[in-house]
Write a structure and sequence with these properties.
Layout (H helix, E strand, L loop, with lengths): L4 H7 L7 H12 L1 H15 L3 H10 L1 H4 L1 H18 L4 H15 L5 H22 L6 H17 L9 H15 L4 H16 L3 H13 L3 H7 L6 H20 L53
Helix pairs in contact: 2-3, 2-9, 3-8, 4-11, 6-7, 8-9, 8-10, 11-12, 12-14
């Protein structure tokens, strides 16, 4: 197989009918490393919406149990990719995802925004740092895949096309990005988690490189100092150099699933999909996170 043969296969498929096949080819064979990094960035930038970042801080899942929360999120989403929406494994993963979300007071607009990041941020990452840009067939398949996921999650008014996903994301960020102390704690914990995956001498470098990849709107929302041109140039240049190197390599011969990523640390002896994620606390009904009343000065999001 030559480097672009799989792209030819993708272009021979129907993005609406064969969206799962196209998505699997794209994320497990063409861009497994890049899509992992892009989805990490997608979830990370949702913290900058205060209603999301504040809730994540209140649950303490991403501040006190960062590695487990990361592992569970990746593994649940990966299960659907690998086995499909209609499989026993896929349905179990979707039930777990929905049960966790139902335990909290999460608005539909926030849920839809998070879904949009899964479509838009990988496309933008691959356009900037992938060994090739995402094709039109893949953009349509990504949109259809996540539109289907949104339906299974009960999200209302899900965009239909990639362009609609992108417009929704940009408008939501323009309207809602802002400072929240809890969100900053979640951000710091996430950056610390990513740095922990590397030897100690590299931890500071990894944190700096991560910040260098963030756009100014995201940095400003968390009140981080903007990295200088040198840090940004070196980080982004290294990723583009990697892309040129990957382009010269033979195409991947077997799928690489996210469950195989070295960043997954919490299940050395394996896992059951039904046991992933968080579970309701016995005796607690409704949202387990306390909410302040508007009269107490809480801003409505």
């Amino acid at each position: 197989m030559k480097r672009y043969d799989r792209l030819k296969e993708i272009r021979s498929l129907d993005p609406e009918r064969d969206f799962l096949r196209i998505y699997r080819l794209s994320v497990t064979l063409e861009f497994p490393w890049d899509v992992t990094r892009a989805l990490e960035l997608a979830l990370y930038r949702t913290y900058a919406v205060p209603s999301i970042g504040r809730l994540l801080a209140a649950t303490a899942e991403l501040t006190d149990r960062s590695q487990k929360r990361y592992d569970d999120t990746v593994l649940l989403l990966d299960t659907v990719v690998e086995h499909g929406f209609g499989s026993d494994e896929g349905r179990t993963a979707l039930r777990r995802i929905n049960a966790m979300h139902r335990a909290y007071d999460i608005g539909n607009d926030d849920m839809r925004y998070v879904l949009c990041t899964f479509v838009v941020i990988p496309k933008r990452w691959l356009d900037a740092y992938g060994w090739r840009r995402l094709s039109a067939h893949e953009r349509r398949a990504y949109a259809t895949y996540y539109r289907t996921l949104g339906v299974h999650m009960g999200i209302k008014d899900v965009p239909r096309t990639y362009e609609e996903f992108e417009e929704t994301l940009d408008a939501y960020e323009d309207a809602h990005f802002g400072w929240d102390e809890g969100a900053r704690r979640v951000s710091d914990a996430t950056l610390g988690l990513m740095a922990s995956w590397y030897p100690a001498p590299l931890a500071r470098l990894v944190r700096g490189a991560s910040l260098a990849l963030l756009d100014d709107a995201l940095l400003d929302a968390f009140r981080y100092r903007r990295p200088g041109p040198l840090a940004r140039g070196l980080t982004r240049g290294a990723l583009r150099l990697r892309a040129r190197t990957v382009r010269l390599l033979p195409p991947r011969s077997r799928p690489h699933h996210a469950r195989e990523n070295p960043e997954i640390k919490g299940y050395p002896d394996g896992y059951e999909v039904s046991g992933l994620g968080t579970f309701p606390v016995p005796g607690v009904r409704g949202c387990p996170v306390p909410h302040h009343r508007a009269s107490d000065g809480a801003a409505a999001e």
